[in-house]
Known about the structure:
By secondary structure, the protein is an all-alpha fold. Helix content is about 80%, strand content about 0%. Helix 2 packs antiparallel against helix 4 (about 65-100).
Amino acid sequence: MEPNALAGIRTNPLFVALVRRRRRFVACLTAATLLPYFAFIYVAGFMPEVLAARFSAASIVTIGWPISVVLIVGAWLLTGLYIRRANGEFDELTAKILAGEQ
Length: 102
């Protein structure tokens, strides 16, 4: 692609909107993934007895197990959410930009 074409794309209002929306969305997803993860690691490091607590005296399952499963499944769901939006909204905007719409 020619340098002039790239400059034209960078100044396109649709491209600016695409970049802004995608950055905001990725920042939200990153925060939604990393904050619970680091909170889990923090609790595991400084208060391991919280995660080692059992649901009942007869239970062999600790509280840490379901929380860790929720973290993993949540990361999968957030990844799927990104893919859905990238394949929909972001791809539509990209197609409009490549078609030359302003």
